[in-house]
């Protein structure tokens, strides 16, 4: 099923994100974790794509398994930075052959190596180039894209970032998923601005349950997200007590989702990081709201 169809439902919908293993030996345990999450019947599951394509095989294997065995719609991520046209065409073919109907079209992060590379030879510089390629391929795929309530770190300002986002949507992105954020007001402000800029496609907010103190620094480095004082207090108080930090992180994410739903947002993507127990706890907390 296409994500645009999934999003038409009226009750609260939770989707989960998983990531493929980096090594062959980790495959069995990751696969099993993703299956546990699929059993929770999320509205869809997204499977990330390793930067540079290192885990591309597993992205599709996991997405196909979840879809075929559990009937959960899947969204396969695909990055394009530094990839050749031939590689991208091959990946698109594989996605179609796996029967996957949704693709998240991403540029991918610039590693220090890529940052210093000669970009004039690249076939794709931005996600919009991949979106155009997907449309031109004629594949019947529902295309998603990433967006950044707190501005992509490479953008000079929000106006510029939103202008590029609009180009991505105009090129064929049918829905957007946000980078994680810990203050819902940033999301509401962002939504107001993109709607004003004429971006009307559905936006799925991405919520990351932080369940251990080490995750905080990594999440901030990765996303540049603002940490509200209320959140920092939780980490200060419970950071050295793993069980309590996990409970507090799940409660914080649950609270964010309830506030989003109360403010009219029906679809929330949980960055569940291959942790079925965390996904299950959040789902349980919201059981009477979920469709
Ligand atoms: P783009 O849309 O290309 O934007 C990147 C920057 O370029 C922005 O500053 C934008 O304003 C600017 N820009 C865009 N178009 C133009 C243009 N035409 N001219 C000039 N500037 C332009 N990474 C992975 O490796 N694998 C994943 O599976 C993955 N999944 C993700 C899922 C989500 C929901 C999010 C939010 C991020 C994900 N990422 C993933 C990280 C992502 O690859 C990085 O954030 C990356 O730096 C930007 O990707 P993008 O697709 O948003 O790029």
Strand fraction band?
Answer: 5-15%
Distance between the termini: 17 Å
The structure class reads: alpha/beta
**Unique ligands:** flavin-adenine dinucleotide
Q: How do the strands of the widest beta sheet line up side by side?
A: 1-2-3-4-5-6-7-8
CATH top level is Alpha Beta
CATH-defined architecture: Alpha-Beta Barrel
The average pLDDT is 94
Order of secondary-structure elements? HEHEHEHEHHEHEHEHHHEH
Low-confidence stretches: none
Notes on the structure:
The chain is α/β, with parallel strands linked by helices and 291 residues long. It has a single domain, classed as TIM Barrel (Alpha-Beta Barrel). It has helices spanning 3-6, 27-38, 56-70, 85-97, 112-115, 127-136, 158-171, 184-196, 213-223, 229-238, 242-262, 276-285, and strands spanning 13-18, 45-47, 74-79, 102-106, 142-147, 175-180, 203-207, 267-270. An 8-stranded parallel β-barrel has the order 1-2-3-4-5-6-7-8, surrounded by 5 helices. Helix 2 (27-38) runs parallel beside helix 3, helix 6 packs parallel to helix 7 and helix 11 crosses helix 12. The mean pLDDT is 94. Flavin-adenine dinucleotide (FAD) binds next to strand 3, helix 6, helix 7 and strand 6.
């Amino acid at each position: 099923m296409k994500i645009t169809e999934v999003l038409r439902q009226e009750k609260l919908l939770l989707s989960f994100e998983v990531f493929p293993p980096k090594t062959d030996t980790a495959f069995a345990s990751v696969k099993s974790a993703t299956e546990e999450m699929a059993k929770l019947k999320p509205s869809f599951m997204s499977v990330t794509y390793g930067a540079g394509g290192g885990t591309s095989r597993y992205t599709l294997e996991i997405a196909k398994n979840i879809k075929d065995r559990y009937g959960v719609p899947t969204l396969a991520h695909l990055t394009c930075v530094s990839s050749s046209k031939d590689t991208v065409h091959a990946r698109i073919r594989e996605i179609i052959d796996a029967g996957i109907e949704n693709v998240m079209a991403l540029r991918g992060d610039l590693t220090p190596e890529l940052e210093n590379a000669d970009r004039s030879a690249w076939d794709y510089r931005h996600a919009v180039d991949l979106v155009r390629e997907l449309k031109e391929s004629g594949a019947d795929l529902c295309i998603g894209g990433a967006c950044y309530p707190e501005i992509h770190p490479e953008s000079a300002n929000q106006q510029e970032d939103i202008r590029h986002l609009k180009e991505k949507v105009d090129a064929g992105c049918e829905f957007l998923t946000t980078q994680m954020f810990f203050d819902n007001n940033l999301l509401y402000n962002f939504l107001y601005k993109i709607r004003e800029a004429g971006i009307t496609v559905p936006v799925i907010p991405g919520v990351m349950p932080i369940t251990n103190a080490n995750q905080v620094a990594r999440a901030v480095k990765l996303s540049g997200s603002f940490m509200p004082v209320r959140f920092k207090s939780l980490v200060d108080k419970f950071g050295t007590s793993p069980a309590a930090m996990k409970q507090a992180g799940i409660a914080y994410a649950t609270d964010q989702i309830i506030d989003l739903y109360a403010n009219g947002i029906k679809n929330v993507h949980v960055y569940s990081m291959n942790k079925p127990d965390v996904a299950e706890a959040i789902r349980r907390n919201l059981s009477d709201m979920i469709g």
